[in-house]
Amino acid sequence: MIAQNEANRLFSEYRQTRDKALRNKLVENYLYIAEILAKKFSGRGVEYDDLFQVASEALIAGVEKFDPDLGNQFTTYITPTITGVIKNYFRDYSRSVRVPRRVYAVAAKVKEEINDYYSKHGVKPTVKYLAAKLGYSEELIVEALECRPTISLDARVQGGDGESETALHEVIAADGNSFEDFEDTESLKSEIEKLSPTEKQVVTLRFVQGKSQTEVGKILGVSQMFVSRAERKIVEKLKDALL
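Below the sequence we write its predicted structure tokens.
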């Protein structure tokens, strides 16, 4: 644990140099606050891992913005900041019903079976057939058919000419005038602008520069698991604007 005077010195040095090694050292030093707050709010319908990711992003942003010259201690500054971000997360995600993971898992199997059946017979199978084939109840099959599974970054989206298609990750990676090739240009731009600074870095490093999750983690000073979860969250935020 770094002493307060030493931490303030590192904060001041980081504000001058923007040295990521200094930032990462400070983030690691105060990561326990993110852990404590994530645990405090867990068990309320959102998993701890998701809350820890949100808290960690807020911590990183707080380290980047904190100015020790204002006279505040970082712990006093960051605790209500992370708490506010977590509360906003609950508010935003309580507006929509979250489909249970088990339904997503079933939906993936149902989709695979439908595609296989259609390729062989030229028509889609009935709910009764799917239930018997996969060993689930008809009610669960219907629920799986109605849910919207997570969209892969390799998913194809329609181009503005109504004919050509491109991969979702290519749309995310694009900038400038290339956005005008897509019908929902403004929505896409708007959704990308809503991403947090850390999420934008993940998008740039992963899908523009083509770096691996491990490489991105090292650059941002976070784990590969953190990057993986961040990617899933990014897709969730962008999918409604694109499809």
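The CA atoms of residues 162 and 183 lie 9 Å apart.
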